Amino acid sequence: MPEAWLNFIIIIFTQLLLFVICAYYEKKLSDMPRSLGLGALIAIVVGVPFDLIVGILFGLHSFALGFGMFFLIINAILSYGLFASNILLLQHVKLSDFIIWNIAILVVYEITNNFFHVWTWKFTLPPIEFLIVLLVGYIAGAILVAIISHILLKRHFLFIDKLLKK
Fold first, then answer.
1. What's the burial of 29, exposed, middle or buried (CB within 10 Å: 0-12/13-18/19+)?
2. Can you tell me the distance from the alpha carbon of 30 to that of 62, in angstroms, rounded to the nearest whole number?
3. pLDDT, tens digit, 9 for 90 and up, residues 97-106
4. Which residue in 1, 104, 137, 152 has the fewest CB atoms around it within 10 Å?
5. Cα gap 97→106, rounded to integer Å
């Protein structure tokens, strides 16, 4: 069990590092604290239900640390929170850049998890199809965060504004 917690800490540190890189690249270092706070709030609403539905109900993933409520809440605040915080930094980017950042998030998260196991995907597909499913899932999650932020928090996303103006 201690190794699983160490792996979780490494995953969180890696996600935090990617968040800092994204903030630096997008020139949003001053937005980091607010994005982290809002990201954690959004993540509690999205992360726990996602894990309960996708992980327990549909059995599509599992955690080395299990599905206890303590871990699900910590995971939501930290892991999903950092994901949502990254997305919040991308308000003013074009859709293509939004997708590229999500590909980067996918690659960093999944490669790190491959070496420091925290979650396991429980479905098997050929590698290309598996990557496509993961990419669609990550982008769908990012768009959900953007829509929630856009509507409830009034943090307008450029690609959503452009879509709504058409």
1. exposed
2. 35
3. 999 999 999 9
4. 1
5. 14
